[in-house]
Amino acid sequence: MTEQLTPMPEDWQRALAVVAHPDDLEYGCAGAIAQWTDAGREVVYLLATRGEAGIDTLEPDKCAPLREQEQLASAAVVGVETVEFLDYKDGVIEYGTALRRDIAAAIRRHKPELVITLNHHEAFGGRFLNTPDHRAVGQAAIDAVGDAGNRWIFPELGEQGLAPWGGVKWIAIAGSDTPTHAIDAEPGFERAVSSLLEHRAYIEALTDEDPEAYARGIITMTSGFVGDRFGGKPAIGFHVYER
């Protein structure tokens, strides 16, 4: 018998999603976010970069504002009104105290009960290598949750008026190879497709496939990964750590 995944926690009102690049949340996670905002919950996006190194045929200074606008449009599709950028350099993010501090500051500022980030391990699916940016940001987001609640770590944040926030109850890792929880993908499926499709310039540079067919195929594929462990229906999986 395949062990079934637990439904995602619902006892929360505010979430902060922390990722490295525009489009990171759209490859599978946005459908869950659409359902949460529909239910009246607040979700804020925090991106470490503006994705300026993501399109080979477009110089970074031209790429960054384009991808920023695509991300803002993409977030709006799933009901996210606040998108913040930390302006780290795309492709060369380093894990360290500066990154932890910036994420901790956002946690203190937005006071989420749920923090969402992306797979921070070496690979996806045990085969496809992960990027250094994903690994650095994912690990820093996990560590920053503890930093945000400790007044003696980054005391300068307190001096800036950002009081410690220890109210994060859960950390949810999207794209994990070891999911523990899931949410039904069907209610947010079409908006997940539309949200990914807002990254049209990125998709058109990535593939010759029709952008809508590509987006629909990606969301269909990712929502099928854990279906057999969630009642046999398409689902979005997360590895959830409880604090």
TrEMBL record:
Keyword Zinc: yes
Gene Ontology biological-process annotations: glycoside metabolic process
Domain of life: Bacteria
Keyword Zinc: yes
Gene Ontology molecular function: any one: hydrolase activity, acting on carbon-nitrogen (but not peptide) bonds, in linear amides
Matching Pfam families: PIG-L
Alphabetic keyword roster: Zinc
Protein name as catalogued: PIG-L family deacetylase
